[in-house]
């Protein structure tokens, strides 16, 4: 088993010379081919977090977990009533670039299994998508066509998998930018619910206990997927198609029911998903977490093809598989639960006490490695950091240099841009209501709201990110993403309680990328601290670049909020009727870039991607969230919608179109900044009458917030906005609706 | 009065249906496994939505051959109430208990949205309580009801169109028919009127918090089941 290994072999697997030497040192010998493959996937960025680990220590709970018992698959939030909520984001960017339907579908499948192996029933999926431009003229025609193809098939893949597996896709976001043309971003998030006394663990225990392989058979698909995820995309994308796994949502649905049934038997000691790096990752991580070893016989693994080598079996990423440790003598209960659902459950080995993962194929030992060597001795790197040129340029942005656009034209342009237009074309392809717990569907609120059975509480969930802001000012971009996600959740009446993040960046070995990553993470960590929303789980995806360039730095924030009574949930637009509109604002001193730096107005209406986003007032955001939660629970609000991309003009237009109202409003200040400036910490409220405004204003004042009436809504259509009593915008309902509702269907041809 | 909610592998609305019946319609209901051979002790059967057997051969085709379907067919013959929702409707068609078929939506895309429904037949077991326009969600890729012209004529002549899609407030007739179904048919009945196949999901519209409780008007017909059977 010790033959010399040529450098081409390990570099092809993604390892460098230093890493290879460390492996030889750890083993005290040259690794076998299978062992080398195991190190390559476990030490890939995807599994090993080589570049991100030092930076992620900025997240308090992550740091504590690293120093304590080790990171579990996802964190858990106690929501009361004996219930916990768990959530996590996972990226599937590279597979989706190559094979969009399966890439996106298996991304959904993987994140659902991550949640399932906590012992939680998956109750909702969300997704965050980035593509290159789909508007003619914003890129080469062939590139636009390719982007539309990717968009169409990624959405179909998410729906094809999520709809079948019976987990509702309740919220998401989509944005477009030339930087994503060669490398789309596909991030899936899953939320699960469990009884706090039934949390499952991934830590193997009890030498002699049987190791049980669960689910679908193993084939050759997805070998080295984790390594593929940790490389850049290039011209050989098509050649990498076999790296992409094929999803079977029917098998996953059975896996969900069988796993939850099996966990109820009490015969399961530990369980983990076989996701990235397949059998390698699950055997190694479960052993490492439990401080034990495993002896595995690969001849017992259910295989789709007879001639799979040990290397292939250990590295395959065939989908819908899990690994469990059962209590000795009780494996039959686990196996029966799986066979009832028509799934395979096979004992493939035993837990051992020597800390070694020992793997046999055809009677020969093909790998014999200390689990801890693979999990704890992965080298970490701290790279050079250098501020990006875009950041240095953006400091000098002068909003006075923007062209003076007619506000009516600018508003229609923003509403009709696929970034801001209605995403109905997307979310109608997703089953949003299966499990019958969806109390506020996509597009109806600033976040989706779930009404889980067994509690009166409501859960608000949201995924959000603004790459333009992060590109131009990564630190603020990180903070703003957290602030906005928290505000969105609070707009439904829920208290923001926890974050999962999805960090999508370029090549971390480039100083400006590493700087963007470091800055954005610090921004997220600071905002999470002030808002009291710990980062409980997350995912890092590097090397998002192709021959068409590197992606914008895209940190995504998945936010969970909890409300005491789900009946108090708020939509973004009031139901049919008449009433008043009020604006509640965090106290704020606008910079001399007037809220137009890094704004949608500058980028999408004026074609200028420049300037800094405003620095959010995080203490004020926290007070705003508390105000919204209080006012919603007192039932003083009819709806709440935050001002974000496109400013108050877009927020008011959305309220008009989504609810079918005629809106009149009067704003203060200089026209363009008042209409389109992206001042953080502003929420448009609808209320019944003046008395409600008086009550709300006193509540707002007591929290240091400003609140005042800005207009009215009534049955009808259309939008009229005055600034300082001068008409700035006057648009018919049809014009608003055709821009907002039909932009994406028109571009996609149906 | 007890309803059998048939549990097939890959169905994903079985739990929703059980909760809707028990918790919201206050009707006794239990799961019955697809491999079982008896519906003894039950008064009605519900075939839930989802993707039975992954819909891999053809929607509902494999479930139509499950052992329990013999008993569902007996219920249909004996005049006991049977309802198939979404994939359950597809199963009933595949099993020959209802005429016609459900084909891919006109726009070839999965579609999840609210629709409005009117009962056409007003006298059957399932529809006699439905006098107002109902609002409830659909969620399907293959929900376009089709049948040969003779069958459609017969269904109309025999008053076996259970529900049609109708425009909601401010909606055009084209937008009202979400999948391009023949004559906007959303649900059909068997000859006796005891078997209903319906594409929209009444079990998803049983509480105001879910957006509508109009589905109860259909499910509560089951309260009268024992007398009818």
- Which architecture of the largest domain in chain A per CATH? 2-Layer Sandwich
Number of strands of chain B: 11
Oligomer status = heterodimer
Order of helices and strands of chain B: EHEEHEHEEEEHEHEEHH
- CATH topology of chain B: the name is Rossmann fold
What is the gyration radius of chain B calculated from CA atoms?
16 Å
CATH class wording of chain B: Alpha Beta
Provide the structure class of chain A: alpha+beta
Q: Indicate how many domains the architecture of chain B comprises.
A: 1
CATH level-four homologous superfamily name of the largest domain in chain A: PurM-like, N-terminal domain
| CATH class placement of the largest domain in chain A | Alpha Beta
Largest beta sheet of chain B, briefly? Answer: 9 strands, mixed
Active site (chain B): 86 (nucleophile), 201, 203
Subcellular location (chain B): Cytoplasm
GO molecular function (chain B): ATP binding; glutaminase activity; phosphoribosylformylglycinamidine synthase activity
Protein name (chain B): Phosphoribosylformylglycinamidine synthase subunit PurQ
What do these coordinates show?
The complex is a heterodimer of chains A (750) and B (229). With 750 residues, chain A is of the alpha+beta class. Chain A folds into three domains: 1-59 and 202-378, Phosphoribosyl-aminoimidazole Synthetase, Chain A, domain 2 (Alpha-Beta Complex); 72-199 and 458-569, PurM-like, N-terminal domain (60s Ribosomal Protein L30, Chain: A, 2-Layer Sandwich); 387-421 and 571-750, Phosphoribosyl-aminoimidazole Synthetase, Chain A, domain 2. Helix content of chain A is 38%, strand content 24%. Chain A contains 27 helices and 27 strands. In chain A, the strands form five sheets. A seven-stranded mixed β-sheet of chain A has the order 7-9-6-10-8-11-12, sandwiched between helices. Chain A has a seven-stranded mixed β-sheet with strand order 22-24-21-25-23-26-27, with helices on both faces. The longest helix of chain A has 25 residues, at 141-165. By secondary structure, chain B is α/β, with parallel strands linked by helices. Chain B has one domain (2-228): Class I glutamine amidotransferase (GATase) domain (Rossmann fold, 3-Layer(aba) Sandwich). Helices cover 22% and strands 25% of the residues of chain B. Chain B contains seven helices and eleven strands. Chain B has helices spanning 14-24, 69-78, 87-94, 149-157, 173-176, 216-219, 225-228; strands at 2-7, 28-33, 44-47, 82-85, 101-103, 111-119, 134-140, 144-146, 161-166, 185-189, 195-198. Chain B has a nine-stranded mixed β-sheet, with helices on both faces. In chain B, strands 5-8 form a two-stranded antiparallel ribbon. In chain B, strand 3 (44-47), helix 2 and strand 4 (82-85) form a beta-alpha-beta unit. In chain B, 57% of the residues are buried. The mean pLDDT of chain B is 95. Classes of the chains: A alpha+beta (750), B alpha/beta (229). The A-B interface holds A 156, 159-160, 163-166, 248-251, 253-254, 341-342, 427-436, 438-439, 441, 451, 453, 566-567, 660, 750 and B 9-10, 12-13, 15-16, 19-20, 50-51, 53-56, 107, 109-113, 137, 139, 141, 170, 201, 203-204, 206, 209-211. Chain B: Pathway: Purine metabolism; IMP biosynthesis via de novo pathway; 5-amino-1-(5-phospho-D-ribosyl)imidazole from N(2)-formyl-N(1)-(5-phospho-D-ribosyl)glycinamide: step 1/2. Chain B: It is found in: Cytoplasm. Chain B: One of its GO terms (molecular function) is glutaminase activity.
